[in-house]
Sequence to fold (1132 residues):
Amino acid sequence: MTSGRAYSVGIDFGTESGRAVLVDCADGTELGVAVYEYRNGVIDEHLPEPDADVRLEPDWALQDPEDYVRTFRQTVPALLAETGVDPADVVGVGIDFTACTMLPTLADGTPLCMVGELRREPHAWVKLWKHHAAQPEAHRINAVAAERGEPWLARYGGRISSEWFFAKALQILDEAPAVYDRADRLIEAADWVVWQLTGSETRNTCTAGYKAMWSKHDGFPADAYFAALDPRFEHVVDEKMSREIVTLGARAGGLSERAAAWTGLVPGTAVAVANVDAHVSVPAVTVTEPGTMVAIMGTSICHMLLGDALATVDGMCGVVEDGIVPGLFGFEAGQSAVGDIFAWFVESCAPPEVHELARRSGTGVHEVLEAEAAKLEPGESGLLALDWWNGNRSVLVDADLRGLLVGMTLATQAPEMYRALIEATAFGTRVIVDAFESAGVPVAEIVACGGLPERNRLLMQIFADVTGREFAVAASSQVPALGSAMFGAVAAGSALGGHDSIVDAARRMARLGSERYRPDAARHAVYDELYREYVRLHDLFGRRGDDVMRNLKSIQRRAVETARTS
Amino acid sequence: MTSGRAYSVGIDFGTESGRAVLVDCADGTELGVAVYEYRNGVIDEHLPEPDADVRLEPDWALQDPEDYVRTFRQTVPALLAETGVDPADVVGVGIDFTACTMLPTLADGTPLCMVGELRREPHAWVKLWKHHAAQPEAHRINAVAAERGEPWLARYGGRISSEWFFAKALQILDEAPAVYDRADRLIEAADWVVWQLTGSETRNTCTAGYKAMWSKHDGFPADAYFAALDPRFEHVVDEKMSREIVTLGARAGGLSERAAAWTGLVPGTAVAVANVDAHVSVPAVTVTEPGTMVAIMGTSICHMLLGDALATVDGMCGVVEDGIVPGLFGFEAGQSAVGDIFAWFVESCAPPEVHELARRSGTGVHEVLEAEAAKLEPGESGLLALDWWNGNRSVLVDADLRGLLVGMTLATQAPEMYRALIEATAFGTRVIVDAFESAGVPVAEIVACGGLPERNRLLMQIFADVTGREFAVAASSQVPALGSAMFGAVAAGSALGGHDSIVDAARRMARLGSERYRPDAARHAVYDELYREYVRLHDLFGRRGDDVMRNLKSIQRRAVETARTS
Fold:
């Protein structure tokens, strides 16, 4: 017997931990949250015990698939216990994951790193999204694609990242051909955890589209392209992947007996196909139609946007039909460092009196800098920055770009620099907004979620004033997990108390906070002037008008070599 | 009866204090030094007691002429007592001063601020070199000169500073015509203190040439020019100054009875005509011929250079025949902030761990940053700066320019930024060296004096590596006062145990330290590459290719206004 209520569980697999929420399908109420910190976290120096003597090269980043299973076993039973919800009332389960995070497995889904004789082989483990050791393969992927005039390249801003699926797969083939041979399947971890829940393998449109160059219209790149990368790679899709790609919100299957035992849920409970953390956040903040951008603001920013039609937008990360909401084109852009820049400033540039003030007032250094910076008018510092401390992801797609700060005098103070850095990240977002609008994809307003909007009111107001757009903020602080629960409810369907589409689910389960950040006309006018300066410098240094940053990097590379050998 | 030895006293009037040295004319041995901290220092907020209720406008900077007299009365007797030198053996006295530091006086030399009813009138006081409130007058001086095509403008890099003589004089006329009328004389403080020593008024080639647009060939600008500035200003030279300009090293007169009583020296002792601190330093570091640049390195840098012929060097501060060493053309250029930038960085940007390290190791923050920065190879930081935190004096002559730092990543550390700032100031010096050489004025090597070379070995090596020139360093730590003593010895002449020319005096009395900073070929090659990047940015932002700094300043000015009124 059930209570007549319907609940869904959403599980968000992050970089350091997994977190699950239990949500009421009727109104989105979050009844509870449970977090599991991965036992082995990010594996970037050596393999876990007892194989800690196996050291990893620089730029490697792995995870342990058993941490994902432990997430299921730790969080869901805890949620059920904490909320007292009857497992029979949980109608659906959804998950989201970082991406591209991928692994090689046997035909039955067993990760190769769990096959005894392969345990000490780094290539047998899960390659985490921020594994950056496949750069040579990414170069090859881009060079061969450019040479062959591959049509899909334009959908990804003209460049494939070393973080993506085929770069990582090709690295296995290059460096560990025996592991590659042994891998019956190469699969996104997102899809793998769904497989673990249902017992059957599915592949979702989101990771296939954004990370594996798949499109609904054209499928994967041609075998001839893969053969041009390496003859052994020709049939990678048919040998180790699948051409059957399932739309978001679809039911991947029912919960297996084994997974029911892990979670305490009822066997057969609907499980949604996998999704990605950023993408699942879009409906979770009420957005299921074109016109409203979702900005996921943390150490970096992901900008997600829906469009009615395919458009070629200068320098975006990717556009995928059905990639966010079925029936629409999902656009993704991003800024590679935002909160990271403020953290850098606090760590490397904030003078002792700021730290001392934070200590005396019992707040943080960020808060002291923000309070002082908030006293300034736009333009009052006389400073301007280019926010490229970690390169530029959109719209320049250039990891070699570097930060710039201009306008310092002997009177320049730390809070002025801090504000200039915030403003620069807002200008970076405005460049992306302008690129979308120039390509005919409208951005009428913006919804923010992630860690920054909750903490930093000045930043939100500056983003509104700079972009001239109203910003709303997500009500939930567990946006991705909520989004996954919504997709779980869609997998269940309305007959079981869920919903029949993600649009319906968003209407009932998602909501925004009451606060709005509205652009101030006077401040926006000043920022228009500063933005003109920003754009001129952006184009000057970013679009190969002036190569100073690339030249500095090249001089630096040789200097580091000199330092190493002297 | 005298001992047969001959000594000279040199007195250096600085911004906060006066310092005197007593020197052996035979070999330059410094027997003693005495310092007087001015009682009223820099007067920039209100007049001294009992008139402290008279407040000064922003940008004002005054001094009290009685502090100069007190310097004589405090330092010279102390020197004589300390060294035991017989006053009869002191054959000459020389002085140097900041410039342009000027004051209005009665015909007998009485400063107007010492005339009872004018004491509460700020314009009756000494205007210190860094009094910057005459900017409107400087604009007028430049605009009228440009309009009339005044030929002397080219000798000053095309622009007259608000710090200079006629800007300050014109401000008195503009704002306090009664004070202007009452002033029988308008005179450099340098010449005024010599007047106090000798009882007779003289004017020297150095301040006349560098600060009052005088030249040996053309004299002062024409009366018609002054009339175009203001009809009441037409006869300023003949009414309140003098057209008789005396060459450096000449005897201004003998010590008066009054000044003998102040100092303890013998009446009639030879007193040299006045000189300027930077200029008097050139022979004091052995330089009396073309080819060797003297860099006076402290909060800012003055670059002094001798040439055989008049040359138009792009953007210099001034060129004056006989302005440094009689018979040669003296060139002056400068960087408006050097040590000031490093001090700014320590104050505003050095993170707590650097301060903590300094505290633990018992050294200063500069020393910690220098030690860490010294571990880097040229180019290793990946950073590049434009050193314009206080505008650019040479060769761009533009106070509106601002600082720039480019190349930051999330891994950038404080010592890397500190080194980039040192390198930027070295690049700024190299631009000046290159400008001289391009104009046919050779710079074969460089002698450094001032506060920085004594303290900062890394900085000196970077300057050598960047410029590709050998740097020597002055032996004396009292370079200007020693130079003044040398000119005192020249005023006395060889018959009295002094010298017949400043060249002779330099040969006998001046010397360099034994240490040489020689450019390293490998580091110089890397700096050549970085310098190309510096010059490209320098020209881009400095020569109106890109107006970002000026635009930021203009936006800032309005923002400050907004902040004030809101």
